[in-house]
Amino acid sequence: MEPVATPFFFYGLAGLAIVSALLVITLKNPVHSAISLIVTLLSLAGLYLMLYAPFVAGVQIILYVGGIMVLFLFVIMLVNVERAGHEERYSRQWPAGLLASAVLGALFIFVYVKGSSIFPQQAALLPESSNTQQIGLALYRSYMLPFEIASLLLLVAIVGAVVMAKKRI
Amino acid sequence: MGEITILHYLVVAAALFAIGVVGVLTRRNVIIVLMSIELILNAVNLNLVAFSRLYGLHGQVFSIFVITDAAAEAAVGLGILIAFFRNKETVNADEIDLLKF
């Protein structure tokens, strides 16, 4: 199915993602930052849908918004942040950091604009009705070993998180 | 407003990456530093999915692996943060200096 009104949705979602990403790094209260990060993640899921990737969009919503952000909010709840209200938000080296990342972003955009002619003009054929099926086949055929390594990584992360957060082992 | 090309998505991803780097380098609260790392990983994901529009499905599979890594990183990072908070009662990055001498 061809997407409708692509520029409207693209600029809306991209603007929402960038504005709420800016709010993540500028707001004082970590809970408000977490909520802006959720808005960023949801608008990125919308952008994935526009790029014919419905499975990645679903995984983004379920795993990021439903899993990782809940983890963040729980930790914000556990860690006492009352003191953070009247403290300095930014560390002392903030001008240097801002300058470095502005240069980095300008470099990215320069390279993309200069090198955009090497991209193929024809988009690949990605039928979204069989997208999930095709990703499943790719995961269990060509990407079998990385898939298993990812499960091992998650096991190590579970054990590591429990060992870190436990008072007495 | 012309047609939306892959380049538009790449520019959005570059902006998100730069915002994430600003957050990592300038904020003092470690929780927000971890959130900025999530922003960076999401910018990379957007790049991968945008390129999968041109080159086929591999980018989407890779973005799923990146999401898995982000989950593992968040769990371990927040575990370290809780362990640290229990010892030093702070979440500020510049007060985490136990290894300094």
Write the layout of secondary structure elements.
The complex is a heterodimer of chains A (169) and B (101).
Chain A: H1 6-26, H2 30-50, H3 54-78, H4 94-115, H5 131-140, H6 144-165
Helix pairs in contact in A: 1-2, 2-3
Chain B: H1 6-26, H2 30-55, H3 58-88
Low-confidence stretches of chain B: none
Structural class assignment of chain A? mainly alpha
- Indicate the radius of gyration of chain A in whole angstroms: 20 Å
Number of helices of chain A: 6
SSE string of chain A, helix = H, strand = E? Answer: HHHHHH
The description of the largest β-sheet of chain B is: none
Name the biggest interface. Answer: A-B, 88 and 75 residues
The tally of helices of chain B reads: 3
Which bin fits the share of residues in helices of chain A? over 70%
Computed Rg of chain B:
17 Å
3D shape of chain A:
globular
Low-confidence stretches of chain A: none
What would the principal axes of the Cα set say about the shape of chain B? elongated
What's the helix-strand series of chain B?
HHH
Number of strands of chain A: 0
Distance between the termini of chain A: 55 Å
Question: Could you characterize what this model shows?
Answer:
The complex is a heterodimer of chains A (169) and B (101). With 169 residues, chain A is mostly helical. Chain A contains six helices and no strands. Chain A is 72% helix and 0% strand. The radius of gyration of chain A is 20 Å and the shape is globular. Chain B is 77% helix and 0% strand. Chain B is built from three helices and no strands. Chain B starts with 5 loop residues before the first helix and ends in a 13-residue tail after the last helix. The interface between A and B is large, with 88 and 75 residues.
